[in-house]
Amino acid sequence: MVRTETPVCDFGQSAPDFRLPGVDGKIWTLNEARGKNGLLVMFICNHCPYVKSVRDRIIRDARELKQQGVNSVAIMSNDPADYPEDSFDNMKRVAQELNFPFPYLYDETQEVAKTYGAVCTPDFFGYNRDLKLQYRGRLDESRKEAVPNARRDLFEAMKQVAQTGQGPKDQIPSMGCSIKWKGTQE
Questions:
Q1: 140 by DSSP, 3-state: which?
Q2: Domain Thioredoxin: where (predicted)?
Q3: Using CB atoms within 10 A of its CB, is residue 52 exposed (0-12), middle (13-18) or buried (19+)?
């Protein structure tokens, strides 16, 4: 497992479009995923211990952000040939077991992850209503293991984005497992 941190937020960068299959049997695009006040794009997977440790908090925050008019979408871009736990069938199983309140999409070619510049799981991209990047930081201050009353960086930032269109200037990078690119050994 290679620990990786996300780069700083490139404020105002447009959200790249995508067209990806979801575990719900639907093909999703950027426009179909967006909310009236923004969109949270998350790169996650099934096998990463960082993602596993924060899934419940991601689900909680996605549900609460929806009430703010911010939709969420999760994209899995790892190579399941080397990481079978990340297969499409296992994506379906995990999404169903955990009752994901957001589409869970499969980026088989890994082109979407590359276009976004995703580097790890989890990697969060928070966009405003105009689909301009406003947040590229961590989920919360507890990082991997949940800490009671931890500051919810992602939720607070996206709530601010929903209300003002602007994200916080100071952001702390997310960290997680590197994306498992096809043709690389880790």
A1: coil
A2: 9-160
A3: middle
